[in-house]
Amino acid sequence: KEEAVLTAVIAAALMEVLLHVPGILNAGFPGQLATATYLLTAVLIPGLVFGALYYLRGFRAAVLTHAASVVVIAMTLM
């Protein structure tokens, strides 16, 4: 069971990266390192964290944490 959950969380995080790639490539980052860094810090790592939260604490905790992170990021960018 644990291996299946780990595989599912990793697969979901990688799918999220794939879904974000076209938009990120069009964003105009200055180089490959900047693009990869953004993908890692803004998409892959949060995807893994929210997947782990979903497994450990349930859907509600994952959704509320995700929503809170979006609010913090939006307020930071203002």
Q: Explain this structure to me?
A:
By secondary structure, the chain is mostly helical. It has three helices and no strands.
Structural class: mainly alpha
Count of DSSP H/I helices: 3
Largest sheet: none
Show unreliable segments. Answer: none
* Helix content percent band: over 70%
Number of strands: 0
How much of the residues is beta strand, in percent? under 5%
Residue-averaged pLDDT: 91
General shape: flat
Distance between the termini: 43 Å
Computed over alpha carbons, the radius of gyration is 14 Å
Order of secondary-structure elements: HHH
Key phrases:
flat, 78 residues, mainly alpha
Summarize the structure.
The protein has 78 residues and is an all-alpha fold. The protein has 3 helices and no strands.
Architecture blueprint of SSEs:
Elements: H1 2-25, H2 32-57, H3 59-77
Helix pairs in contact: 1-2, 2-3
